[in-house]
């Protein structure tokens, strides 16, 4: 267990030429360069063009292809991908020969993908075949193009700088056979010696399980975690553009936030539930079960050790982070619910059918309230189904925000009462608050317009003030 597996995200990848001279090479020489496996995402914005924009939903190649099985609007979308890929590698490569090879790589991969989609479109003009039955494979094919391009370009860049880098393509391009994820990774890594070469691995891996079926665009962290587990990594490292901090510095001030430094997988899971994902929960589970600690660093501060995430408990009670998320409160009130069973499971079935993510829930004698992460459009469909199922019930929903104080151990800190007092002292009101018996998080429900001041107030009371009190005591 002498090597690390390290992941670089898409936004950071667009500055990989800067990382070459600091994070990847820096002042390392000869053998010190190795013992590291890098898993790379596509260059920033490329996956948005290949699939759809992650935030706005603007159609990329996949969405254009999925929405029409006859016209060729997706061809123009693929041309835009080509232009963006070429622009991305020209921004990080210096040598004309490397740029020429990268251009040829883009041409070969995109031409192959174009021909594949044309053949699929033609095949589906026959009544025996349905395009909808092949869309998951199409999505995976397109997504893998981005990571293959960035890994190939990064390998060229590092080889030019004198590093013995190797391009490791897990995307299954023109491979025969349908192998599992573990088989894909083991087959690609079997002849590689991390002590003598630097593997640059695609974040996407084609496999029989179909990573996008369950993880969609979170697949690169799944690949990363399995690679760390299967190769017996000493540590798994995710390089982001920021440190894991006690709150968003834009909300509470750069001087007020604290770098976490150390936390555990339990806290990482709570943050994922609140939309602040340090790592995908399934990827975290893989690392946790394999005994591989995770480190999250700021890619552009390579001298800083960042935050270590493992399975160890805290040294003592402490609030580590305050964060918030916009949600909807979906409430089902039914007088006949008292003493009856089945309401919870019925609501859960409907929410699952509409693919609505549940963040938290509370209930009493005749009311079940789910705090859900959903669009209003989808929520209206859920309400309609619930009314059909329970015609005498009252179903309502309202926009709210959840602000949570999270830590490995919140015992004896009176977080709930101190938090409510902090909100009141700042003229803010909580609609509701929840603290479970397991002392890892306390949730405060507030109106959406007060989420930001609520985070600031709670951070000041639970983290900044507590820190000052500890310093005084010392």
TrEMBL record:
<feature type="domain" description="Aspartate/glutamate/uridylate kinase">
    <location>
        <begin position="4"/>
        <end position="298"/>
    </location>
</feature>
<dbReference type="InterPro" id="IPR036393">
    <property type="entry name" value="AceGlu_kinase-like_sf"/>
</dbReference>
<dbReference type="GO" id="GO:0004072">
    <property type="term" value="F:aspartate kinase activity"/>
</dbReference>
<comment type="similarity">
    <text>Belongs to the aspartokinase family.</text>
</comment>
<dbReference type="InterPro" id="IPR041748">
    <property type="entry name" value="AK-Ectoine"/>
</dbReference>
<dbReference type="GO" id="GO:0005524">
    <property type="term" value="F:ATP binding"/>
</dbReference>
<dbReference type="GO" id="GO:0009089">
    <property type="term" value="P:lysine biosynthetic process via diaminopimelate"/>
</dbReference>
<dbReference type="InterPro" id="IPR001048">
    <property type="entry name" value="Asp/Glu/Uridylate_kinase"/>
</dbReference>
<dbReference type="Pfam" id="PF00696">
    <property type="entry name" value="AA_kinase"/>
</dbReference>
<keyword id="KW-0418">Kinase</keyword>
<dbReference type="InterPro" id="IPR045865">
    <property type="entry name" value="ACT-like_dom_sf"/>
</dbReference>
<dbReference type="GO" id="GO:0009090">
    <property type="term" value="P:homoserine biosynthetic process"/>
</dbReference>
<keyword id="KW-0067">ATP-binding</keyword>
<dbReference type="GO" id="GO:0005829">
    <property type="term" value="C:cytosol"/>
</dbReference>
<protein>
    <recommendedName>
        <fullName>aspartate kinase</fullName>
        <ecNumber>2.7.2.4</ecNumber>
    </recommendedName>
</protein>
<keyword id="KW-0547">Nucleotide-binding</keyword>
<keyword id="KW-0808">Transferase</keyword>
